[in-house]
Every structure is written in C-alpha cells, then in structure tokens.
From TrEMBL:
Keywords: Isomerase. One of its GO terms (biological process) is L-methionine salvage from methylthioadenosine. Belongs to the eIF-2B alpha/beta/delta subunits family. This is Methylthioribose-1-phosphate isomerase. It comes from the Bacteria. Transmembrane segments: none annotated. Pfam families: IF-2B (PF01008). GO terms for molecular function: S-methyl-5-thioribose-1-phosphate isomerase activity. PANTHER family: METHYLTHIORIBOSE-1-PHOSPHATE ISOMERASE.
Length: 333
C-alpha cells in the first residue's frame, strides 16, 4: 500500500496542491498554491515538511515557467533564476531545494526553452524516488530480522523505502518514534505512516529517548539527515544530537540517511542553521503550552559530530565519516 504522505504534492492546471502536514492525520486538507510565491509561503509556514518541500519546489518552478512562456529566452531564464533563489531561501539548512531548482534549470538551459521546466520537474521527481529506493535497500541491509529501530522526526521516503526494503527481505522491524516537538512530526507523520505500512510502532516523548536507548530495547538509531558535510557532521532536526550522543554511550549504532553528502559544504561553517520563531515552541498544534510571558527558543536543526555517527547511508552505499569523499570518486561535478 502506498502511504498517504508518499504523494503529498500534486501539479494541476490551477496550481500546486500540497497536503497540509500541520494537521495530518486528524485532518486531510489540501492547500492550493497558484503561484511560486504561494508555494514558498507554504514551505516557510510548514504546510509541507521533510521531502515535501523538494517536490513542492519542483512544481513551483513549473508554475513560474508557465507565466514566462512567450517571452524571449534570456529574459524568461533570468526571471526563472530569481524564482529559484527565492524558493531555495525558504528553508536554507536543507540543500535539497537547491537540487530541485538545479535540475529544472538544467533542462531549461539544455533546451533553451522554459517550457522544459516540466520535464525537469518530472526527472527530479523520478530521480529522488529512485535514490530513496536505493538508500532504503542499503539501510535495510544493515538491520536484522526482529530489530527494534528508534527514529526521530520524519524520514519520509527514506523511512518508507527502508521499511519496504526490509519487508521485501522478509525482515520484521519494530519502531520507537519520538514525538518531535513542536510540530509533533514523529507522532503525527512518522508513527502514522509506519502503522499504515503494518509496522509495530511505539511513540515516546522527546525526553524519553535516552532512557529507552539505555534500556537495551533498541538495536539501531536511524534518522534522515537534512545535510551531511564532507567531514561527516550530520545536520538534522533538533534533538538528533542528544539521541546520537545517548546511542553512542549505550552502544547503539547510529545510521544517518542522506542521498549524498554535500560537496559544497566541506565543514559546518558552510551550513546555515535555521532559527524559527521562538513562539512556535510555546504551543502544540495551535494550542498554548505556555503563557506569552515565557520566551521560546527554536533552533530547527542541530549538528551531530562524526564521532557519534556510526555511518552515513547514501544511494550509493554506506560510508564512514572519513570515507565520504569516496561517494564522488570518478564523478565530474
């Protein structure tokens, strides 16, 4: 069965439909974005999360290209390039948005026709799903039948492809999911999708992670990574660092999933950590959890040093932190 969130962005004649993940699964509302600017606002406002912004940005580029058809190519290309930068800046820590705009612009430039944005978006969609499938197989190969896995936040296609690959290998997995404040992605998205796939799933609060890792019940910590630097630092949803440190302390391997280490980020100095409005931590699903007299702090991501990372799982295989350069060997960039 295809999980609901595996198809949460759709291009239509009227615009881009995005499934609102802020209230899923309690409500299943689709937000219609008629312009690329509407998509940018939806991404910034967390209407879509995890890999959702990648697919949304692909289609936003198509929306913009539609408005440019008939203009001289150089003029249209310049406007499309500005839109690409605008979309990339909606969530700057994750470099997937840069990849989405790049593949669309590559097709446009090759054809010297903005109408080819659609082919670029289709190729970007196909490529992301194929890489996620490969990554899922490599991760499943690291897990044993009856393993219990802890995950944090929402690994989206990485997670579903890992589970699918494990099931195809005849392995049964169990999961502990952290709730992932303040948006509760783990509780609403990860846990719900795992249950959809027939997986034994237990939800824990964010503060329980270290205790559960200490209990000996967990065989592996597996999370996605928004970015992995070439020197092996894992940038992911805030809270990952604490779990990785605890896993290391209690002898639990930490497998971080990313399609590719970022060759434009040699170190963490090249990664901007997004800070969101602190008011977001003062509420849960729109309801106050503290009074307005309290200040909130919300770094959306944290950085796990390579000494706490067992390995990085990519679409091309599994690498230790000191081996990430091998991902690009023989490839011209």
């Amino acid at each position: 069965m295809q999980p609901v969130l595996a198809d949460s962005v759709r291009l239509t004649d009227d615009g881009v439909l995005i499934l609102d993940r802020r209230r899923f699964p309690f409500e299943r509302n689709w937000v219609l974005c008629r312009t690329a600017e509407d998509v940018a606002r939806a991404v910034e406002d967390m209407v879509t999360q995890s890999s959702g912004p990648y697919f949304a940005v692909l289609q936003a580029m198509v929306l913009k290209a539609r408005t440019l058809e008939g203009k001289p190519f150089e003029e249209a290309r310049a406007e499309l390039g500005k839109t690409a930068l605008m979309l990339e800046n909606t969530r700057r820590t994750n470099n997937a948005l840069r990849k989405a705009t790049a593949i669309v612009l590559e097709h446009v430039d090759a054809a010297r026709d903005v109408a080819h944005a659609l082919q670029g978006a289709q190729e970007g969609d196909r490529r992301y799903r194929a890489k996620s499938r490969a990554l899922g197989v490599h991760t499943a190969n690291l897990l044993e039948d009856d393993d219990t896995v802890m995950t944090h936040c929402w690994a989206d296609l990485y997670l579903t492809e890992t589970v699918r690959a494990a099931q195809e290998q005849g392995k049964t997995l169990r999961f502990f999911c952290t709730e992932t404040r303040p948006y509760l992605q783990g509780a609403r998205l990860t846990a719900e999708t795992l249950v959809e796939m027939g997986v034994d799933t237990t939800l824990i609060t964010d503060g329980m992670g270290a205790a559960v890792l200490q209990s000996g019940e967990v065989d592996a910590l597996v999370t996605a990574a928004d970015r992995v630097t070439m020197d092996g630092h894992v940038v992911n949803k805030v809270g990952t660092l604490g779990l990785a440190v605890a896993a290391h302390a209690f002898g639990v391997p930490f497998h971080a999933q990313v399609q590719a280490p970022d060759h434009l980020a040699p170190t963490t100095e090249h990664v901007e950590i997004e800070y969101r409005d602190g008011a977001e931590v003062l509420q849960v699903l729109g309801r106050p959890s503290a009074t307005p007299r309290v200040k909130g702090l919300y770094p959306a991501f944290d950085v796990t040093p390579p000494r706490f990372v067992t390995d990085v799982v990519t679409d091309r295989g599994v690498y230790r932190a000191g081996e990430l350069h091998e991902y690009y060997e023989g490839e011209q960039r």
